[in-house]
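Entry 0007
Protein: HTH-type transcriptional regulator PuuR
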Amino acid sequence: MTGLSPSAISQIEIGKSIPNILTMKAITEALGISVISFLLENVDTKISLVKPGERLRLVRNSTSTGDLGDLIEEFLTQGRNFQMEPAIITVPPKADSGRAITHPGEEFIFILKGELRYILEGVNDYDLKEGDCLYYPCTIPHRWHNPSEQIEINF
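Output (structure tokens):
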């Protein structure tokens, strides 16, 4: 069905040969599966559907002084097999993240509502508005501040 010899298929099965993209396409079509499912060991652990009422929520003190309300973080995926941890973060007015931190990985910020000042120390201060995106390596010391007097922001 693939047009490959039994020997070629055997070499792929035992890991002695790596198929090119056209060979992978022929094999997956013969098996009735997608190319992506051929590449993933366990597809089910790579997929997460989380509906709004099912989101895990973390409520924590939102400022270094602790007197401006709670920061709410809603996680948009569930499971441990993901390289990203997307979340919607709701920040009360005048709240801040405290001191700058660093950690491994990368962050992607998308402002859903409101404005946020994002500080990448030694690089730049960014005044982000609704619809703005910021992506950066977390090895840069970073922190944020909600400058608004009245608006909770979501990012």
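Curator remark: DSSP finds three helices and nine strands in the chain. The helical segments are 6-13, 21-31, 35-39.
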